[in-house]
Every structure is written in C-alpha cells, then in structure tokens.
Amino acid sequence: MTHKLTIRLPKKLAMNISLLSEELGLSNSEMIRPSILKYVVSSNNLKSINGFSFNKDEIVRRTVNVNDTVHRVLNVRSKEYGVSVNTMMVFIIQKTYIYYANILRDIREIE
Question: Which superkingdom heads the taxonomic lineage of this protein's source (predicted)?
C-alpha cells in the first residue's frame, strides 16, 4: 500500500529542492525517497535531529509517496526521537538538498 505524506516545508527549501530536481531531471520524490531510507533506517544518521528546527512562518505543502514499510519506520523513528514525522521529513529534505547540490556542483566542475 502507498501512503501519501503531505509535508509542510519552508518555502525556500521547497523552491530549492524543486529547482535542483528539475536541473537533475529527477522528480522531488525520486530525490527524497532514497534519503528517507538513508536517514531513517540507520538511526546513526538521525543523531543531529535533536535540536533541529525550521522557520514555520512561510510554508508550502508538498506530497511524497512512500510504501508501508517506510511509513512504519518513519512513525517509529519519529516517536523514538520525539519529533513529528513532518519535522523528520524537513530534516531529511534539507540533507537531501545539500547532498544533491554538492553533486551538481561537482558535475559543473567536470564540464
């Protein structure tokens, strides 16, 4: 079964991830889903989520489709770390943006 997660993202992050995914020829979900696995399945990657916060003044809604397993793991980890699934997703998307922006920078250096 597929779950549609509606995420409230800071407007600037949503814009940046959309521009980056467009430039790389990927959908937002194609960029985000592997990162969910990277950060949520391995709890070592979530250590820095404690104390993580983001500007909630200007937000936009985006959706990401995930399967049952990923949905369950998101819920377990959010309880484990005492943060909402939304906060966890913003954290993951921010890390995703940084990762792919670095890849794009490296590609530009090669060209």
Answer: Bacteria
CA 22 to chain centre: 16
- Residues facing residue 64 across a β-bridge: 5
Tell me what the mean pLDDT of segment 10-30 comes to: 90
In 3D space, the residue among 107, 33, 87 whose CA is nearest the CA of residue 64 turns out to be 33
Count of structural domains within the chain = 1
State pLDDT tens for residues 6-18.
999 999 999 999 9
Q: Which domain holds residue 91?
A: 2-110
- Closest residue by Cα to residue 31 from 93, 83, 85: 93
CB 4 within 8 A of CB 65: yes
Long-range contacts of 21-25 (CB under 8 A, 24+ apart): 21/100, 23/104, 24/100, 24/103, 24/104
